[in-house]
Amino acid sequence: MSQIRMVLADRDTLFMERFSEYLLKNRNPSFSLVLFSNGPKLQEWLESGEKADIMAISSALYNDLDKKPDKENLVLLRDCPESMLPESFKSIFKYRPAGYLMKEIISLCAEKIPHDFDQHKDSGNINLVLYADGSDALNPFAQVLAAVKAGSGRKTLYISLDEISNADAYFSGDNDRGLSEMIYYLKSQKDNLALKAEACTTLDMDTGVYFMKGHHDPRDIAGLNEKELTSLLNSVSSKTLYDEVIVARGFSNDHLLPVLLNLAHRIYITAFNYSSSLNRVRKIRDILWETEQKYGLDLKNRAVFCITNVVPDPGILDPANFDYEIKYLQGPIFASNLAFETMGRYYSDLKELIETSGD
Known about the structure:
It is built from 13 helices and 13 strands. By secondary structure, it is an alpha/beta fold. The strands form two sheets. Strands 8-9-7-10-6-11-12-13 form an eight-stranded mixed sheet, with helices on both faces. Helix 8 packs across helix 10. The relative contact order is 0.12.
């Protein structure tokens, strides 16, 4: 991914130092910065014909400029009374956390940044988690998988594609943007979707997992088509963005399933060990086999069925006649966020599964 060339101009040198340090360390996306702490130097730079992808200028310094820069890729950092702000300009309140400021600036200016940010050749791993029971309400497999990946030092993004998402029940952060806004960008066929996706992600400080906040309307997911889903996954799967992408949804034999199976590096079908759940697992195995034949997919080395033991003496799956790998995990303990405890049995079982599988 190319670097974003950004001008940052403010008389507040402490703010400049801290914000620029954050931008340079973040690397997602990568910035090349040009810094100005006074108006005359910025004026000279503008008059020399230099260009930038984004210009973030404090409103007080902007008001003192004799020659104003083009406002198309300009964001004002508000540090003066609103009555002194020029009309119809993009602006953000300056005194916010650096991560929030960065995402707001990217969201406001993404349309003006060169479009090579969406052209990725080296992809990260897409991990598809399909819930055989139809819900992750009592089975936090995907969320714990994301926490394990992040805990091992892999930069990890979590997205729930369930029609009713509970991503916000497991992860939290201060970014108001999320999957609903990203779906709007997809349906509007916006450019620079990788940057749009970055503006819609949030870092959960407890687990180190990046995530897209849950969508607001179940129809957001129900209305996704194959092209939009492909664009969504391509926008976040560059290795320069994330090492691992966790995509979770209840199993559904619909138009999106072949897209997900084709793009996934690893496929986890998870269920409890109730007899009724194992019957669903057998039917899903048949659907996977049929999908392989219909679309020419090779899923044998990518798919693993992960059965969580929650009841004694359940029915069993016969490995000899199942065609796909089967793994068993100890059931999680349900309490306040205990599923993420690194000493918990469920966490350690899933971590061992990943390590022994070479994922």
